[in-house]
What we know:
By secondary structure, this protein is mainly alpha-helical. It contains 18 helices and no strands. The radius of gyration is 22 Å and the shape is globular.
Amino acid sequence: xxxxxxxxxxxxxxxxxxxxxxxxxxxxxxxxxxxxxxxxxxxxxxxxxxxxxxxxxxxxxxxxxxxxxxxxxxxxxxxxxxxxxxxxxxxxxxxxxxxxxxxxxxxxxxxxxxxxxxxxxxxxxxxxxxxxxxxxxxxxxxxxxxxxxxxxxxxxxxxxxxxxxxxxxxxxxxxxxxxxxxxxxxxxxxxxxxxxxxxxxxxxxxxxxxxxxxxxxxxxxxxxxxxxxxxxxxxxxxxxxxxxxxxxxxxxxxxxxxxxxxxxxxxxxxxxxxxxxxxxxxxxxxxxxxxxxxxxxxxxxxxxxxxxxxxxxxxxxxxxxxxxxxxxxxxxxxxxxxxxxxxxxxxxxxxxxxxxxxxxxxxxxxxxxxxxxxxxxxxxxxxxxxxxxxxxxxxxxxxxxxxxxxxxxxxxxxxxxxxxxxxxxxxxxxxxxxxxxxxxxxxxxxxxxxxxxxxxxxxxxxxxxxxxxxxxx
Length: 473
């Protein structure tokens, strides 16, 4: 056990890189959780509207976000290969993608309005959905830019900076949301507008913070100032590997958004219960995204140094740690679901909250099942993405997303099925994807993949066990 923990790419190395990223993504979970909790206190209409609007916004920005943030893999492999001067230019290509996306995303507002009007949701919820989207869209560009800028740090394994910035942004969001939703501190009572505005401010705070840190003289060697020019060759390389990953995000987010829309047609209570169940689920799932980012970074760094065996070891180590966490959370969801609902219950009348609670408790049992496979899904998908196997990820997402979504639509509209049918399908969706990514990882094709130029990959040292320890931030 001691050897497992202390060896190169063992438990200590994985946790040193992953823990700040887990805390960073956990801060996003806390931010979202608190927003939903405040909106639950405000009204059922607003909490029912929050997730569909947020998911539609994220779906529309997911493709450019997936392409731009694939910079992380390039940075990791350049870092592993010792080519630090290539890092600044590739980060700038992601920034250019983010800047171009801003006006295009602002033009999606009429499309979003039409989508919500035809979604079949309660009219009062539709009003809130449109209102929330109209505010959130002004933070879409910030999401892409902040994700790209943070990749400069995560790809190099300097994850504590990301943890500090994102945690502070979550704190700012929570304070502003409380003041603006309920009208405290002399501010007008703004409801869902206040929640959206707080999120937008937090996202732009992340952009400004990362930009300010990257201007420090210690980062001059990465050519962050001189590498700002549009680089067609490098951009095409980023597009080649990042576009399939962006399409994967678009398909998965789009499918999930359509799923939420289908559930919304089953009634306001079912929609609100589903939103809050997913909100509770985020406590387990979102930190796994931090672990996934750590896996992609470690795989990228080790492949850049031409050490595929070390990349595999890091992946298996991360999987063990992820399973320990997910098993614990699954037990909590089944045994003590009210622990996660105390905050939501505090701001509602007992007779209003009890029917909602009974529904959420049932839905959390589905969450407890698929959480275990989500660990498999995130870790092994991140490993092959970190190598550059993004086309396989895209086709897998397409195959595993469209079938359950189609079956949910048929079940609701033609077979008389309801909410439990939808949740059964989403559970099977997550479980099947986990096994597919595990199989691809075991196949081993990823070991020979690289996203950076072949001529800059390092020659592996002859004794990886003795000389392959990672440098921790």
